[in-house]
Amino acid sequence: YYAHDAWQLLVACVLMSRVSSWECKHNTISAFFAKYPTPTAALAAKPNDVLEVIRPLGLFPNRFRSVVEISAKILTEAGPLDVGPDQERKIYGVGEFGIDSFNVFCRGDLSVNPGDKTLQSFVNWQRRRGHEKK
């Protein structure tokens, strides 16, 4: 759903982290993007309003901080967005899965070997189809 847009992809990754219920993730993330469709809308939101939307996911202070940092980075980054584990590219709350997802879906980088089994299956499938960058 969200792989076409770096902001939505990264926000979805931090919202779905540590939540096992697909239905809970899907419903909550869909509701979040319905109410806050852009980084600007997310930054303008009152924390209590966001809490009401993402409460089912738990860990509100951490998730909210991540959404704010992702949104601010998207809006202020000079040049193309770059996300990684090192200090210069790190965004609070964006871990290995978010970084790997960003590299695969936003950059088209299939040289990544993700730790997530489902993402790795997607990468392997794309490689078999000949979609790896030369």
Account of the protein in words:
The chain is mainly α. The protein has a single domain (6-128), classed as Hypothetical protein, domain 2 (Endonuclease III, domain 1). It is 59% helix and 0% strand. It has seven helices and no strands. The protein is globular, with a radius of gyration of 15 Å. The two termini are 27 Å apart. 27% of the residues are buried. Residues 20-100 form the HhH-GPD domain. It comes from Micromonas pusilla. This is HhH-GPD domain-containing protein. Residues 1-21 form the signal peptide.
* Shape descriptor: globular
The Rg value, from CA coordinates, equals 15 Å
List the uncertain runs: none
CATH superfamily: Hypothetical protein, domain 2
CATH class wording: Mainly Alpha
Give the oligomeric state. Answer: single chain
Helicity, as a percent range: 55-70%
The average pLDDT value, as a whole number, equals: 94
Helical segment tally? 7
The count of β-strands is 0
How much strand?
under 5%
Distance between the termini: 27 Å
Largest sheet: none
Q: Which class best fits the helix and strand makeup?
A: mainly alpha
Proper CATH architecture: Orthogonal Bundle
Q: Order of SSEs, N→C?
A: HHHHHHH
CATH topology: Endonuclease III, domain 1
GO molecular function: catalytic activity; DNA binding
InterPro entries: DNA_glycosylase (IPR011257), HhH-GPD_domain (IPR003265), MeCP2/MBD4 (IPR045138)
Subcellular location: Nucleus
Keywords: Nucleus, Signal
